[in-house]
Structures are given as C-alpha cells and as structure tokens.
Amino acid sequence: MVEEGATPAAAELARHGITGRAIISAYDRLHAVPVIAASILLDGDTFIEDRTGFAAWVTPVTLGGVTVDRIAFRPTRPAQWWSERGAAILGEDAAISAALSEMSIRLFRTPLAWLCAGCDGAVILGNMWPLSLRAEIVPEDRDHARDIAALHRRNLTPRLALRAAA
C-alpha cells in the first residue's frame, strides 16, 4: 500500500512490497542505505553504474557493516540480478550470526524478497554454496526447499538442515 504524500521513490518501493518499516529494519542490519535507483550497464554477470544504461535497483552486500559488493536487479524481474564483484551471498552477516548462535535463517529466492523482509535472512546469489551458510535454513516454500537441497547436493557441502516450508 502506498501512503498518501509518499515521495516517488518511497511509492515505487511500496508498489513492490518494500515498506518503510522494512527499509528501517534493513538499514539497521546493513548499516547502509538498503536500496537505491541507478542506471547500469552489464558486463557478463557483472554490472557497472553508468548513466547511459538501463534502470535498476542496487543493494549493498555488507559484511560487518562494510559494503563489499553490490547487487543490481530490476524490480519487474527480481529473479535476475548482477553483482559488481561476484558475491556468493546477500545477508552474510545474518548467515554467520545464525550459525554461531545455532539459530535458523530465512533464505529468500531474490534480493527483492529479502528487501521486503527487511533484510532479515539471506539470498544465495550464485551456483556455489556459501561456506558461511551453516545454520538451519527456513525456505520460502516447498519448491524453494527442493531448489536449496539440489544446490547443496551439487556442491557436496557438509550437513544441511532444512526446516519444513510453510
């Protein structure tokens, strides 16, 4: 729902399910602005910001409050994204924290779903299993659970604990 009097940027985020509360939560987790609008050009699986490119949203990949990479995606095609430096996971701090505290972690399919949840959880960005992801995983749904299990098997990583999807 778009609030009356919202800025154009806030209205655009709200149209895609990212609430003001999610933005505040994301900022608290990332210690950075969670999403910006940008123009990008593609270079294979990576991107560069360039005003002659196409419109995308860009979110930081942080580790310990430091931006180590950035992910770009179009909100109308959230299942496709590009990184600047090839990050393996979005939400690595959450993955490490969950593993150390023996808690579960929510795993999302897309950066957009992760942003809608206030960056509470993680997104696997590539075809390699992130080594920091060692906590019990809570997938979005059963299909997502199957996709996660298949990726885990392909990478021959140790133990996987998958909670039943809702």
Could you walk me through the main structural features you see in this protein, from its secondary elements to its overall organization?
This protein starts with 7 loop residues before the first helix and ends in an 11-residue tail after the last helix. It has helices at 8-15, 20-30, 92-101, 111-116, 142-155; strands at 36-43, 46-49, 54-63, 66-74, 77-83, 89-90, 104-108, 122-124, 136-138. It is of the alpha+beta class and 166 residues long. The mean pLDDT is 86. The chain is built from 5 helices and 9 strands, in the order H-H-E-E-E-E-E-E-H-E-H-E-E-H. It has a 5-stranded antiparallel sheet. The chain has a 4-stranded mixed sheet with strand order 6-8-7-9.
Summarize the structure.
This protein is α+β, with helices and mostly antiparallel strands and 166 residues long.
Q: What's the SSE blueprint?
A:
Blueprint: H1 8-15, H2 20-30, E1 36-43, E2 46-49, E3 54-63, E4 66-74, E5 77-83, E6 89-90, H3 92-101, E7 104-108, H4 111-116, E8 122-124, E9 136-138, H5 142-155
Parallel strand pairs: 7-8, 7-9
Antiparallel strand pairs: 1-2, 1-3, 3-4, 4-5, 6-8
* Overall SS class: alpha+beta
Return the average pLDDT rounded to an integer.
Answer: 86
Trace the largest sheet across and list its strands: 2-1-3-4-5
Radius of gyration (CA) equals: 16 Å
Low-confidence stretches: none
Give me the count of strands: 9
Share of helix among residues? Answer: 25-40%
Characterize the main sheet: 5 strands, antiparallel
- Tell me the span between the first and last alpha carbons: 24 Å
Reading the helices and strands in chain order gives HHEEEEEEHEHEEH
Structural domain count: 1
Q: Total helix count?
A: 5
Percent range for β-strand residues: 25-35%
Shape: globular
